[in-house]
Amino acid sequence: MNHPVIELNTMQELKVYMSPVRQQLLRILELSGRPMTPKSLSLRLGVSPSSVQHHLKQLLSLGVVKVDHQERINGIVATYYACTGATVCIGATRADLRNDREALAFQVVQTAVQGYFETMHRLGPTMPEEGGDAMAGVLHLTEADWLAFRTQVKAFFDAHSLPGPDTSPWEFALLAYDASESSEVSP
């Protein structure tokens, strides 16, 4: 499955996307795996439905969320929103947006780490592998190995980005970089 790619290149687009409340909305939609109404999102976030509606309209303008469907509930039309599954690139061609890319990457990794530790504490000191795992280390790869690894991981993520029968959401943060310069650390 190929996901759309959305490039954010203006400060206004970044302001819309990087809002902490909007990032929380996106995370809730991703973790739920189902379309949600502003009211149900507001209950999860602890903010008013009108505030959620405002944030959803901003995310709609970027193309990262969509109106999934509408239902009539007790005579009122409820609008359900879902993530589009888009890959968001922040100013990939703009050096002046480097700090913004770094801030968002840090926020995403920090959220995943926090969720991991919350799960670890909830499941207790003998958290089974089925509850999660943390791995770190060094791989020694050729450029071809790296490209093959990246391609396989991306294909796996793409194939499992939508909920299905008998699936549950697993949050992840995967960082990989060429550390050859880092290995030349002086004693």
What is the topological layout?
Blueprint: E1 5-8, H1 11-18, H2 20-32, H3 38-45, H4 49-62, E2 65-73, E3 76-83, E4 87-90, H5 98-123, H6 143-159
Parallel strand pairs: 1-4
Antiparallel strand pairs: 2-3
Structure, explained:
It is a single chain. The chain has six helices and four strands. It is of the alpha+beta class and 187 residues long. Strand 2 and strand 3 form a beta hairpin. Helix 3 crosses helix 4. The longest helix has 26 residues. The protein is globular, with a radius of gyration of 19 Å. The relative contact order is 0.14.
Rg from C-alpha positions? 19 Å
Annotation, overall tally of beta strands: 4
The side-by-side strand order for the widest beta sheet comes to 1-4
The amount of beta strand, in percent, is 5-15%
What letter string, H or E per element, gives the SSE order? EHHHHEEEHH
Structure at a glance:
This protein is α+β, with helices and mostly antiparallel strands and 187 residues long. It contains six helices and four strands. It is globular, with a radius of gyration of 19 Å.
Provide key terms for this protein.
single chain, 187 residues, alpha+beta, two-stranded parallel sheet, two-stranded antiparallel sheet, 4 strands
